[in-house]
């Protein structure tokens, strides 16, 4: 009976430091889990409920909260704020595609680029064939 009464008291607005030795730098949100109001959303149909939804549905107790907080320093972000973000000054060699022509189902811009590509390859083939024909005419 005493354990049931104690369990009932633990589910109330109890703090983590009342049960465990906590770090002096522990943020309040970890020391007092009853302040977290992100739990208890609208219920989902049991057929479509995932295991993450079932686990994350209930609010954490003081026994599940961390007792130590080791926050990271903000040195990297502070340095970027002072110096500015990295800027890529490389040459953009990508072919720009027209979103208007793509939406129109291959409009004149896309067709002309296609024809230019075909004409270029035909010219290269003709040049290669002409060089081969000229090479045979030299008597080699």
Automatic annotation (TrEMBL):
GO terms for biological process: axoneme assembly. Belongs to the PIERCE1 family. Its main location: other. InterPro entries: PIRC1/2. It comes from Petromyzon marinus (Sea lamprey). It is found in: Cell projection, Cilium; Cytoplasm, Cytoskeleton. The keyword Cytoplasm applies. PANTHER family: PIERCE HOMOLOG (PTHR20899), PIERCER OF MICROTUBULE WALL 1 PROTEIN (PTHR20899:SF1). Keywords: Cell projection, Cytoplasm, Cytoskeleton. This is UPF0691 protein C9orf116 homolog. One of its GO terms (cellular component) is axonemal microtubule. It holds the Pfam family PIRC1_2. The keyword tRNA-binding does not apply. Coiled coil: none annotated.
């Amino acid at each position: 009976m005493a354990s049931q009464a104690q369990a009932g008291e633990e589910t109330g607005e109890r703090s983590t430091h009342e049960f465990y030795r906590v770090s002096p730098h522990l943020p309040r949100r970890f020391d007092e889990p009853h302040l977290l109001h992100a739990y208890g959303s609208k219920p989902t149909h049991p057929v479509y409920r995932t295991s993450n939804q079932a686990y994350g549905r209930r609010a954490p107790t003081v026994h599940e909260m961390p007792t130590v907080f080791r926050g990271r320093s903000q040195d990297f972000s502070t340095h970027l704020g002072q110096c500015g973000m990295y800027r890529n000054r490389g040459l953009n060699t990508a072919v720009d595609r027209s979103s208007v022509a793509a939406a129109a189902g291959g409009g004149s811009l896309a067709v002309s680029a296609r024809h230019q590509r075909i004409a270029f390859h035909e010219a290269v083939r003709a040049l290669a064939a002409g060089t081969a024909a000229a090479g045979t005419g030299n008597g080699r």
